[in-house]
Design a protein that fits this description.
Length: 409
C-alpha cells in the first residue's frame, strides 16, 4: 500500500471512527477531556504506525483499543496524588449510567453535548468537535468566529459538564421533549457541514457527517415517533441527501439544483422523505420549521425536470416559514423562489433590502450575482461574484462561482 493510500485510510478512519471512539471512551471513563485527548493520541499513533505496519483490518477497533490504552496511561500519570487516585477508582468502580431506550454511545454523546445547561453556541461547538470530528479551525470558519473563541467555548463546556456531573445518557421519556429541540438544531448543523463543507482542505461534500446526522436523527425518531419536528428534520435530511451524488461534477464543481441530473437522485431516500412529509400533513398539526423545509424539498424532488417545479407552492411554503421565522436567511431563500415565479427584478429588490444583515454571508452575494447576471448587469454581477468567492469556504462552490463569473461578458 502506497503512502498516499495510507494517508487516505487515516483520513477516512478519522471521518468514520472519530465520534465512535470518543463516545466509547466517554462511556468508559466518564470524562470528555480524557476521551478527546486519548482519541487524538490514538490517531496520532496511527499516523506513525500505519505507514510501517500497514492499515489494520479493522481500523476502528485498532483506534479504540489504542485510545483506551492512552486514556489509562493518562489516568495512571494523574493518580500520583491521593485525590486523583480516589477519582480514578470511582471511574472504574462506579455503576454504569442507565442505557435508556436505545443503547447507542454516540446518541448519548450528542445529548450530553446538547444539555440545556450549556449555551446554544457552546452546544454547537462541542457537538461539532466531539460528534462531527471537526477541527477547531473548521468550526471557527463555519461560524465566522476566531479559533480561540471556539476553543474557549469547548473548554468551558467540558469543564461545566464535569463540574455539574451532567450524565452521559439519553434522557428519560419525560425529559425528552424539553431536550430534543436543541439536539435537532445541532444535528442539522452537523448535517449542513457535511452537505456543504466549509474547510478548504476537506472534501466539498462529507458523506460521513451527513450519514451520521441521519443515523442519529433516525434513532431520535424511533424514540419519539409522533414528534412532528423530529420527523420533519429526518425527512429534510433524507430529501437533501438523496441529491448528494448529483451535487458535485467530476471536475469538482458544485452543480446547482436546477442543473442536476435528476436521474442520479436516490429514489429510495426520496420515497421515504415524501412518506414522512405526507404523514405529517395527514396529522393535521401546524407544522414547525423542519416540517416546512421538508415540504419545500418535497416539492423540488417531486419535479421530474426543473421546469416542472411548482414555484407558487414553494413561495407559499416560504411565506408560511417567514411568519414562523422572519430571519434574513429565510427571506433570502424565499427570494430565490420568487425569482422563478415573478422574475429576477422583483427578487433583486427583495434581496437588496437584506444588505445590512447579510453583508458577510457568501450566499447573499452569490444570489445577487445570479440575479444581476439574469438582468444583464454584468459589471455589478461580477463584483457580487467576487465578493461571494471571497467569503465562500467550500471548494466546489468556489469553483462554480468562479466559472459563472468568468462567463460574464
Amino acid at each position: 500500500m502506497s503512502a498516499a493510500d495510507v494517508r487516505a485510510a487515516i483520513t477516512r478512519a478519522h471521518h468514520e471512527e472519530w465520534a465512535r471512539v470518543v463516545a466509547a471512551l466517554t462511556r468508559r471513563f466518564g470524562d470528555l477531556d480524557i476521551a478527546e485527548e486519548a482519541a487524538a493520541e490514538a490517531f496520532a499513533a496511527a499516523v506513525v504506525r500505519w505507514p510501517e505496519d500497514g492499515v489494520p483490518p479493522n481500523p476502528g477497533a485498532w483506534l479504540t483499543t489504542t485510545a483506551n490504552r492512552k486514556a489509562i496511561d493518562q489516568i495512571r500519570r494523574e493518580t500520583k496524588r491521593a485525590d486523583k487516585q480516589k477519582e480514578a477508582q470511582l471511574l472504574y468502580d462506579a455503576p454504569p449510567e442507565p442505557l435508556g431506550a436505545i443503547d447507542d454511545d454516540r446518541l448519548r454523546l450528542i445529548f450530553t453535548c446538547c444539555h440545556p445547561a450549556l449555551a446554544m453556541e457552546t452546544r454547537v461547538a462541542l457537538a461539532l468537535r466531539l460528534v462531527g470530528g471537526l477541527t477547531v479551525a473548521e468550526i471557527a470558519r463555519a461560524f465566522l468566529v476566531r479559533e480561540n473563541t471556539v476553543g474557549q467555548r469547548i473548554t468551558r463546556a467540558k469543564a461545566k459538564i464535569k463540574a455539574a456531573r451532567i450524565p452521559y445518557r439519553v434522557p428519560t421519556a419525560e425529559d425528552l421533549p424539553a431536550r430534543v429541540s436543541g439536539v435537532l438544531a445541532v444535528l442539522l448543523l452537523v448535517f449542513n457541514e457535511g452537505y456543504l463543507a466549509t474547510g478548504p482542505d476537506t472534501d466539498p461534500v462529507r458523506h460521513d457527517l451527513t450519514a451520521e446526522a441521519i443515523r442519529l436523527t433516525r434513532l431520535i425518531h424511533a424514540l419519539m415517533p409522533d414528534d412532528g419536528e423530529v420527523a420533519g428534520l429526518l425527512a429534510l435530511m433524507l430529501l437533501t441527501e438523496a441529491r448528494r451524488t448529483a451535487r458535485v461534477s467530476a471536475s469538482g464543481e458544485l452543480i446547482p439544483l436546477g442543473e442536476q441530473d435528476r436521474g442520479a437522485w436516490d429514489t429510495t431516500l426520496i420515497a421515504e422523505g415524501h412518506r414522512l412529509v405526507r404523514e405529517r400533513v395527514a396529522a393535521g398539526v401546524a407544522p414547525g420549521r423542519y416540517q416546512i423545509l421538508a415540504a419545500i424539498n418535497a416539492v423540488h424532488t417531486s419535479a421530474r425536470d426543473v421546469r416542472d417545479t411548482d414555484w407558487s407552492q414553494v413561495v407559499a411554503l416560504y411565506d408560511r416559514f417567514v411568519r414562523l421565522d422572519p430571519s434574513p436567511i429565510i427571506a433570502l431563500n424565499r427570494a430565490v423562489a420568487v425569482a422563478e415565479l415573478d422574475g429576477p427584478e422583483v427578487a433583486l429588490a427583495a434581496v437588496d433590502r437584506l444588505d445590512d444583515r447579510l453583508a458577510g454571508y457568501h450566499a447573499y452575494h452569490a444570489t445577487r450575482a445570479d440575479l444581476l447576471r439574469r438582468l444583464g448587469r454584468s459589471h455589478m454581477s461580477r463584483a457580487a461574484y467576487d465578493r461571494a468567492i471571497e467569503l465562500a469556504g467550500n471548494t466546489a462552490e468556489i469553483a462554480y462561482l468562479t466559472r459563472r463569473r468568468d462567463q460574464l461578458r
